[in-house]
Design brief:
Layout: H1 4-17, E1 32-33, H2 34-42, H3 52-61, E2 67-70, E3 73-76, E4 97-101, H4 106-112, E5 122-125, H5 128-135, E6 143-147, H6 149-154, E7 159-161, E8 166-169, E9 177-178
Antiparallel strand pairs: 1-3, 2-3, 4-6, 5-8, 6-9, 7-8
Length: about 180
Amino acid sequence: MNDYVDLSKEVSYALRHSPSEYGLELDEYGWVDTYKLLKALKRNEKWAFLELDDLVNMIEKSNKKRHEIIGNKIRALYGHSTFRIIKRKVSKPPEFLYHGTTNKFITSIKEKGLLSQERQYVHLSLDVETAYEVGKRRDRKPIILKIKARLAWENGIRFYFGNDNIWLSDDIPSKYIEFS
């Protein structure tokens, strides 16, 4: 199989946004049995010949590290919009994290802070480059916000490790955000 990008999008949709559409039920941490996911995906003739190795290769070849497999379970690491909140282990963040956004949201962010919106958590980047790439999805010239993550953490804002480049958090008040 060579179409790992499309497979990643399909798996993300199933695990992050609409597991019930695939007949799946995520556990409290977002895990589902890999064989149940394979069976659900195989109902679509595009994925009729999908095997476990394809899921493993999809994860290994992805730059974005959106999923993980442990034992016979798979989950999306972040980006959930399901009704049921996915539990995460609270983790102490680095001193600063970053968020890429569009200019049109700056006024709202200054007033209300960073809000999770349709997602379960606010998505933050470990470095400016990743925040810039994320922000470019919606704006050719994104604004990069510097988040005083450690200070926010010390004042009770919870943070969660997403993957090597992505951190998640509860809503972040604007007093912890540096606007450049």
